[in-house]
Amino acid sequence: ASTALYHPGGTCDILAPMPQERHNMAVAVHNGEVYSIAGYHEGAGLCGRTTNVWSNDGSTSPWIVRDSLSYQRANAGAVSLGDYVYVVGGHHEDTGHGFTLSLVERYNPTAGGNWQKMGSLNQDRSGLGVAEVDGKIYAIGGQTYEIHVRNQIGGWLEVYNPGTNMWTYGPSMPTPRTGVATAVVGSRLYVIGGEESGGAYSNVVEYFDVSDQTWHSDRSLPVGVVGSRAAAIGNKLYVSGGRTASGLRLDIVYCSTVVPEPVTPSVLAINALAIMTLLLLGLGVLVLIRHRKK
């Protein structure tokens, strides 16, 4: 359950390990802390899905145990908005019966207490990308599934308005995918990699521009990857982790420069901590692709 803090210069600080080994958890940065939420742990709960929530401030201090989710899940999305951490969708499994969730919960770490159920997604799904732009939550792509009943990868885009506690549909993503990574640069919501319909591991990079409500294509990744993480610092987009079609788990960080825009020092400090989200997969030491040994 190793954890590391990645510095854009290509170095890593080894931090305190998580209390328990997990994968396919949801990750969010809230008020200077990284939250690791639910996910799979072999032998725990129903078919390995958990409700555990922990946080860390990017130091060598131990992870803090937070209040648990109300429902076991993995492959959910998570994001910070206002005073709350939101968890969106995911996959749950009772014995012999697996299905995706439309369930949305939120939690105020300062107040503590139970997670609060909020307005549900219109489309239940797991493997979705979740991000916040201009005070609203965006849920993109993913897979809807119920064992022996349905299994579909989609390009759904839904937008959550906290003022109305409702989700509304937006323009669908051009390339339907699940297991995607997401990051925000200005008004652009990037959706990176994932698995396409038919099982192909995708190197597609598309972004939804909130300012004009349209989708655009961007430079592709060098390799198709599922389950990676992404974060933005200023006008640079970092992608790390995940696995390729051959089963290789990536131990590098890809970096791409996008349209520049002003970033204040305080925002830079917060986003630097967000890079921890790239390193919660037990990948060991990572280096920028341009620093790879030949």
Short description:
This protein is 3% helix and 40% strand.
Can you summarize the main beta sheet? Answer: 4 strands, antiparallel
Distance between the termini: 29 Å
Average pLDDT, all residues: 85
- Tell me the quaternary state: single chain
Question: For the CA atoms, what is the radius of gyration?
Answer: 18 Å
User: Which sequence of strands runs across the widest sheet?
Assistant: 3-4-5-6
Estimate the strand proportion: 35-45%
Tally of separate helices:
1
Return the structural class.
Answer: mainly beta
Q: How would you describe the overall organization of this protein?
A:
The chain is mainly beta. It is 3% helix and 40% strand. The strands form 9 sheets. It has a 4-stranded antiparallel sheet, with helices on one face. A hairpin with a 2-residue loop joins strand 7 and strand 8 (84-88). Mean pLDDT is 85; it is low at 261-272 and 281-294.
Topology summary:
Blueprint: E1 3-7, E2 11-15, E3 26-30, E4 33-37, E5 53-56, E6 64-66, E7 77-81, E8 84-88, E9 91-94, E10 97-100, E11 104-107, E12 116-117, E13 129-133, E14 136-140, E15 143-146, E16 150-153, E17 157-161, E18 166-169, E19 177-178, E20 181-185, E21 188-192, E22 195-196, E23 205-209, E24 214-217, E25 229-233, E26 236-240, E27 252-257, H1 265-274, E28 287-288
Parallel strand pairs: 27-28
Antiparallel strand pairs: 1-2, 3-4, 4-5, 5-6, 7-8, 8-11, 9-10, 11-12, 13-14, 14-17, 15-16, 17-18, 19-22, 20-21, 21-23, 23-24, 25-26, 26-27
